[in-house]
Amino acid sequence: MFFFFFLTVIASPLEEGDALWKYPTYHEAIQKWKKAKNSHESAISIMAQYRLLLIAPSILFPIELIRIDRELGNCDIEDPRCLLARIDREIILGALQYPLQQEFVEELLAYLENQLPDEVQTRNNWLTAMSGKKEDITKGGPFTRGPGAPSISVGFFLGVRQGLGTHLGYHIPNVDHRLGNLSLYLSVGTTEYGRVGFQYNRIHPLWIKTEADLRNVNYFRFQNQEWDIISMSSTQGSVSFGYKKGFDHFWIGPQFRWEQLDTPIPAHGLTMGLQIGPEHARIIQKFDTSFTSYTHIRSTTTLQYRHPVGLGFQINADLCPISEAPWWRQPSAGGGLYLRLPFAQRIRAKNLYTGTVEWQLFPKQTLGGVFFAEGAYGDNIYAGAGFGARIRIPPSPNNNLRLDLGYSSLGWGVFANIGEQF
After folding, report:
1. Please, are residues 161 and 220 in contact by the beta-carbon 8 Å criterion?
2. Are 286 and 271 in contact (CB under 8 A)?
3. What is the DSSP secondary structure assignment for residue 147, as one 8-state letter?
4. 237, 219, 241: which is closest to 228 by C-alpha?
5. What is the DSSP string of 283-347?
6. Residue 389 pLDDT > 50, yes or no?
7. Strand, coil or helix: what is 34?
8. Where are the domains of the chain?
9. Predicted confidence band at 314 (pLDDT cuts at 50, 70, 90)?
10. CA nearest neighbour of 332 among 341, 319, 321, 323
11. Which of 58, 122, 183, 395 is the most buried (most CB within 10 A)?
């Protein structure tokens, strides 16, 4: 309490925001930085604008960065705070996973040490935290990504049987000022396809996830050289509670499902899961069950690995060891789900094993590519391979425009999407 009272008395809004940039006070930090952005001092305004890049939507990030850089170019180089703004630029871009010009930053800090000793010490502390030499980085500072900003996502899909459609999403990070994220989404298509729903997820202090949707979906099954197609309306929802420590977390909760809404069939049960390991090397185990109307137990195991040089693989075992459910609840693959070359739901089986190995070329560059091979075993054996092109949009390396082309045991296939396969 005394610390924040002390800040209010002597600190500038910029410094207040830096101290508040941590859980659970991200929202308050943003308000302080927005206030500093309106400062009559050009250097202070520029430093605040660089900090606000931490919450800039990806589509606006490059435009905002160019605009702020132009303002920095007009800043008086005789003003030591303009040089400090240049340092902050490098630190913040480093927090966004851009290459950090370490030597350049250290030279500027040494030059400013006598003029701005307190500010230089603070930046040195940030650099130490970013290098991983200091584990406790909870004191605030713009060297962490933060929760991000509200964003809109738009996507399209086109398939022989799925028809033409679009996905719309609105994502609000930190909606409750406690790192809770809310996503609203709507999908419509030409083949009577429609879906509307929401998802809310929070990891502090208790892991909570709730989601619900209403959908009309076409399900496909290729059997005996013929297609079985059913169009069905359903609604489902779940509330899961769990615990997260570091990269590992566990969750469990009830899920509710009604199928064929013209004559509703309840299929309620439990959902639970476990995730172990960081994003580049993790194991995910999920269980979904239904015990009303029929018994259905589905186990999904995923093993993922990605090396920094670009080599990666993903192995999945999507199994229904006990199931009285209709065929449309069986695991499927294609259209980006497990496999990229077959179209959506082309492969379906009660017990389905899939695997993908790929080598990303220039994984940190704007333009890149990938060689991949994939396979599956269910009722039949599937294998395929191909090449993909990538255009990466800052600030996140996962904001990739991708186009994959290849040949498989089912013929030629092409897949376009945003984001990587895994």
Report:
1. yes
2. yes
3. S
4. 219
5. EEEEEEEE-SSS-EEEEEEEEEEE-TTSEEEEEEEEEEEEE-S-GGGS-EEBTTBS-SSSPTTSE
6. yes
7. helix
8. 2-130, 150-254
9. very high
10. 319
11. 395
